[in-house]
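Section 5.1 Outputs to date
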Amino acid sequence: MFIRKNESEAGFAPVEIALIAVIIIIVGFVGWFVYHAKQTSDKTLQTSPTSQSAATTGTKSSPASTNIQSDESALNAASSASSQSSQAVNNSSSSLNDTSTLSTVPQ
């Protein structure tokens, strides 16, 4: 009744092999996703300058140029909202500095 030590530790268990396969699949998917996103952004950047110049000359407008125009209008709206909130902060700050509205607290 002697038990060999090496019999129970021979090779990989099926669970270990499955975990290794899952990890390889995840790494492969992440790599593919990054590659695909890079290719898509490169295509968008390559078509963007030609579409923008066509839009400024008054010729056919493409979806890329309308995206640029909508981004510019969104940026202008955000800038306007930011300046309005800055004015509101300045107004509230000046009202806090006004000593006529403050009352003294008895001690």
